[in-house]
Amino acid sequence: MNELKAFPYQRVLILGLAKSGTAVAKLLHRNGIGVIVNDLKTPEDDDNVRQIRDLGIGVIVGEHPLSVLDDVDAVIKNPGIPYENVLIKEALHKDLPILTEIELIAYFGIDQVVGITGSNGKTTTTTLIYEMFKRAELPASLAGNIGHVASEVAEGMEENEKMIIELSSFQLLGVDRFKPRIAVLLNLFEAHLDYHHTIEHYQNAKATIFKNQTEQDYLVYNADDPRIKQMVKPAASTLVPFSREAQLTTGAYCKDGAIYFKQEKVMDIDAIALVGAHNLENILAAVAVAKIEGISNLTIQAVLGSFTGVSHRLQFVEEVNGRLCYNDSKATNILATSKALNAFSQPVILLAGGLDRGNEFDELIPHMSNVKGMVLFGETSEKLTRAGKAADVEQIQIVTTMEEAVQQAYQLSEKGDIILLSPACASWDQYKTFEERGNMFIDSVHKL
Fold this sequence. Notes:
Blueprint: E1 11-15, H1 18-30, E2 34-39, H2 47-54, E3 58-61, E4 74-77, H3 86-93, E5 98-99, E6 113-117, H4 122-135, E7 140-144, H5 150-155, E8 162-166, H6 169-172, E9 182-185, H7 193-196, H8 199-207, E10 218-222, H9 226-231, E11 238-243, E12 252-255, E13 258-261, E14 264-268, H10 279-292, H11 297-304, E15 315-320, E16 323-327, H12 334-342, E17 348-352, E18 371-376, H13 381-390, E19 395-398, H14 402-412, E20 418-421, H15 434-447
């Protein structure tokens, strides 16, 4: 088991419990670091609270007393906790470092890290890269926003093992020394502005992924994205572009119906199993990383020829009497749903709706030409109804449950249609997670 090296903080406040907070509290305790834990919403009888208290770690739940900042020299916060939080504001006033748990990777001496970020496509790209490493028999572990606590993974990694880590803007805001050997910037669109407030702040958070890189490191970036092209200009690392639109002299790109890296043909696009034109960008990014790591074309071909997607991201569920049902519950913004709609030429029955973040859905309208019916739910159902009417969608239904939504979608559909859950909204108005929402869809499809 790896140990923290030269960790500069002696007593740390863990703000926010859940999976990552619990793991970090235990990890720091094992490494002799003083820890206190504070969480507003977790109840006293929660199992995580009991486990941490059994270790002799102080835990305060149900309130945010400012006294928890006494005698601490750093705060490690849950990425989702906003900087307007009363304790975070007070910690900043005290000039305390505000970190997220991925910063701990730097203190484990893990230098073989591939970090992936972007507004959309992170999970698909991260999983593709991991599958390529695994098929090439390169020792690697998944970590980060994909569901595995990064510092916990780092603690158990073997020598020469690589970490493939999905990174959100929330996580990246809380790093100081963290540095991936290969950083991947997929795209940048207006997202999470309720957290970051401006696109500039959001962009700066994403740019943190390469701020510590040197010329020995690599930055794989989307050359089709104007904001990304501007962002990477000050990077010290070796730039490796990818493009779906332009034929490059370096990096990964498309030409004559095939994927190329530099001047070398990697494989034909027709042989790729993953549906959706937007996924080509994720594939190009993964190919660029694989080629940097010396992975063979045969290995890349084997993975791309069989990989059909990750759970809740344009995941094929079942064919029901000629209708193809897809679960895209991870589409929590307009861009993701737009890309999902563009993946199909067949008529679509769209299931959408969820948390109202204050935005309208006008940007979805140009992508709805093949939507013949909509089944809507959640806080945004009326807003999505307006968008559907503006797009001349033939039939629009509003329901309250996912089972109703699937049944209505089936009734509106015909043989050859696509039944697509792609909500364009976060799930938190009705579900704890987008996974729970997607699983409800899958269960309801199976009931058909």
